[in-house]
């Protein structure tokens, strides 16, 4: 499989509990490299734009509120098959359904406050990376 890049976020529910290092260690232990990272407190407009695909879903307001409630660590992760690998490491959206050993099983509080985001396909990975990073901020 090819070396890929994917976009990841350590969400406010996790940064508030001081889990940035613990979650990043799970990525590194699974062979993903952090090739870009910054801490942002996203605006309502940024959160609404990032999650625009969900704008008609009943949980959209709650999602934007959660994502603007504290700092988020936005990252680019690189590695063999990074997009699918990161989705596996994260676990299911609902932590009650997440497999043992996944980040969401270990750390998530609820389906809304589920600690991490990860791109779900090559196209969304490219779009999401470009939403938060310029090319010179990514150093492999
Ligand atoms: P994922 O983050 O696993 O790709 P989705 O793209 O379906 O999941 O949803 C984006 C985010 O919206 C989720 O990570 C979660 O924070 C929130 N979310 C999804 N479904 C619900 C729900 N039923 N209730 C509250 N929040 C939700
Ligand atoms: Mg998603």
From TrEMBL:
Pfam families: NDK. Keywords: ATP-binding, Cytoplasm, Kinase, Magnesium, Metal-binding, Nucleotide metabolism, Nucleotide-binding, Phosphoprotein, Transferase. It catalyses: a 2'-deoxyribonucleoside 5'-diphosphate + ATP = a 2'-deoxyribonucleoside 5'-triphosphate + ADP; a ribonucleoside 5'-diphosphate + ATP = a ribonucleoside 5'-triphosphate + ADP. It comes from the Bacteria. GO terms for cellular component: cytoplasm. Its cofactor is Mg(2+). Coiled coil: none annotated. It is found in: Cytoplasm. Its main location: cytoplasm. InterPro entries: NDK-like_dom (IPR034907), NDK-like_dom_sf (IPR036850), Nucleoside_diP_kinase (IPR001564), Nucleoside_diP_kinase_AS (IPR023005). The keyword Cytoplasm applies. Residues 3-140 form the Nucleoside diphosphate kinase-like domain. ATP binds at residues 11, 59, 87, 93, 104, 114. GO terms for biological process: CTP biosynthetic process; GTP biosynthetic process; UTP biosynthetic process. Its EC number is 2.7.4.6. GO terms for molecular function: ATP binding; metal ion binding; nucleoside diphosphate kinase activity. It is an enzyme of class 2 (transferase). The active site is at 117 (pros-phosphohistidine intermediate). PANTHER family: NUCLEOSIDE DIPHOSPHATE KINASE (PTHR11349). Major role in the synthesis of nucleoside triphosphates other than ATP. The ATP gamma phosphate is transferred to the NDP beta phosphate via a ping-pong mechanism, using a phosphorylated active-site intermediate. Homotetramer. Belongs to the NDK family. This is Nucleoside diphosphate kinase. The lineage of its organism: Bacteria, Pseudomonadati, Pseudomonadota, Alphaproteobacteria, Hyphomicrobiales.
